[in-house]
Write a structure and sequence with these properties.
Layout: E1 12-18, H1 32-51, E2 55-65, E3 74-84, E4 88-98, E5 105-117
Bound molecules: coenzyme A (COA).
């Protein structure tokens, strides 16, 4: 079931930015690919922290676009790890905006991003045990 869009964000605030005119499509709304890119960046930060290094995006599931983003909106991306496997982890990622014009706060997109921990040469590697300090925090 879809969460009510005015409930609180789920997960840790991982990335914040502002939508610029250069991020729009021909209709004047923010381009969907830009939003997915911000979500992938935020999820990558959380994945690298948990995996202790380099990770690759392997799947994006259940991606939903609930509402448009407008130029000037404050965009916040929240991440929460749902599952860890042997080499992979899946995160729920939500994008919320604070409307520049009205101050309204609402969730605009959400999706589940799966990453695989990889070595310097791009080969999958096991995740380290949880709570082991890593160079990435
Ligand atoms: C990531 C990569 C190295 C994985 O290599 P692989 O040997 O094919 O990996 P596997 O098929 O054995 O899967 C590895 C893990 O990912 C999981 N996985 C693979 N495809 C998945 C999918 N579509 N959805 C969810 N999990 C998936 C597997 O279940 C496995 O998890 P586990 O080890 O925790 O059990 C390889 O697929 C790759 O390089 N992909 C391209 C990544 C990329 O370019 N991303 C975009 C830029 S970052």
């Amino acid at each position: 079931m879809t969460k009510p869009r005015h409930a609180a964000p789920d997960g840790t605030l991982t990335l914040q930015t502002v939508a610029f005119p250069r991020d729009t499509n021909s209709g004047g709304d923010v381009f969907g690919g830009w939003v997915i890119s911000q979500m992938d960046i935020a999820a990558g930060v959380t994945a690298a922290q948990r995996a202790g290094g380099r990770c690759a995006t392997v799947a994006v599931d259940a991606m939903r676009f609930h509402a448009p983003i407008f130029v000037g909106d404050l965009v916040s991306v929240h991440t929460r790890i749902l599952r860890t496997g042997h080499t992979s982890l899946t995160m729920h990622v939500e994008t919320w905006v604070r409307r520049q014009r009205t101050g309204e706060l609402l969730m605009v997109t959400e999706g589940d991003f799966t990453f695989v921990a990889i070595s310097a040469s791009g080969v999958k590697r096991p995740l380290p045990p949880e709570n082991v300090p890593t160079v990435n925090g």
